[in-house]
Amino acid sequence: MQMKPRVIVTRRWPAKVEALLAERFDAVLNDDDVPLTPADFATAFRTYDAILPTVSDRLPASVFPSEDCRTRLLANFGVGFSHIDVAAARDRGIAVTNTPGVLTDCTADIAMSLLLLVARRVGEGERQLRAGAWKGWCPTHLIGTRVSGKKLGIIGMGRIGKAMASRAHFGFGMDVVFYNRSKVEDDETRSMSARQLPSIEAVLAESDFVSLHCPGGAENKHLIDEARLSSMKPTAFLINTARGDVIDETALVHALDRGTIAGAGLDVYAEEPAVPGGLLARENVVLLPHLGSATTETREAMGMKALENLIAFFDGKPAPDRVV
Ligand code: DGY
After folding, report:
1. Ligand 1 centroid vs 310 CA: distance in angstroms?
2. Among 124, 272, 300, 308, which one carries the catalytic annotation?
3. Contact 265/237 with Cβ under 8 angstroms?
4. Mean pLDDT, to the nearest integer, of 188-198?
5. Whose CA is nearest to atom 2 of ligand 1?
């Protein structure tokens, strides 16, 4: 009988998908449910035919083995793969796959939630009420910023950027401007009269809300830095559901301290799960623990995509979502 490929799940998957995984693979589940350390990865590369990492695993070039590598596939549970040095994987003949498409709507929902939460001071209000500090209705109590009819700037008009723009435009009557490296001309952007502007600065300068939807990785590291924060309106809010290191977090804390911008809604951080103290301390920042794709439907769909990639790869067929 043919041996099943040995695979390791680094963080626990939805039970339904783990059960399907176990039918086809000799699957080891990391029951500690904490990210693997570099030493764990060294062992994993020697031991498993495939490693199934998530965004909370760090796979820089230094963790890839120079010899004695059994692993042929990294099937990432997630669309973003900037935590994996894909060039190092390619150099060692290791394939990498991801899970695009299935988390678009849920991630856009969280981006829109963050926008509303921070604009309307929802977190502050809930904290105040739960602390027993609410003194009753008052015309000047916790006054926020109106969302409907304002201007939203999108940085990165891919699948998730468009889904966010559509929620804002059709749901809240917002005007949409955007920056995208390549020209975007399609029915979806035309239907919401979204205007592509020539630079990030141009988008920042005229937007009441700026939402980041570009990939992470070296090319976008600190894309939003001190200078760019300064080109935002002092009344504007920054929303990030992309990757934490797209924003220079130190510059963001300074900008919030100085009132350069009005607030921020963040789902992602440069050194997750660590969150800078300067952000934790602020009332005008809404902080979520990387919940973009956290719904039953989406997490199961992501697992199914990772599984389809694994099955195709080990059946000798092209993996549908191969990155390298
Ligand atoms: C991804 O898939 O890249 C997300 O950030 C996880 O929700």
Report:
1. 18
2. 272
3. yes
4. 98
5. 78
